[in-house]
What we know:
Strand order of the largest sheet: 2-1-3
Structural class: alpha+beta
Distance between the termini: 72 Å
Bound molecules: L-tyrosinamide
Amino acid sequence: MATKLPKKPPVAPAKQPHHDDGNSVVMERRTQKVKPPQMYQVVMLNDDYTPMEFVVVTIQEFFAKDLETATQIMLKIHLDGRGVCGVYTRDIAATKVDQVLEAAYKAGHPLKCVSEPVDL
Ligand code: TYC
């Protein structure tokens, strides 16, 4: 029985020089038109009544931060009056704001947060 030899890879046909007959349609190269979306930061605001523990848990839950990061953000808000919890596209940021406000309202705390466009 004859041993099968591995097939040689097909050889690409030699390229023919391209002669433009003057009737060719040439597409213009366009610059990329799609811009990245405007991003929104969710800013949490300080108040005198919401317990620090509640703020930390809320930041962990809705902004996927670990305990240490959430605590740092909470302390920044406590000291500076406001702090950024996360940056998202518009609808996601609006949802995060709703989630925080609802959780705070249900728990009886006056915690507030807003979303605002991030300037470039
Ligand atoms: N200032 C609040 C207190 O002393 C704690 C707090 C932190 C409240 C951050 C809101 O977004 C906030 N209990």
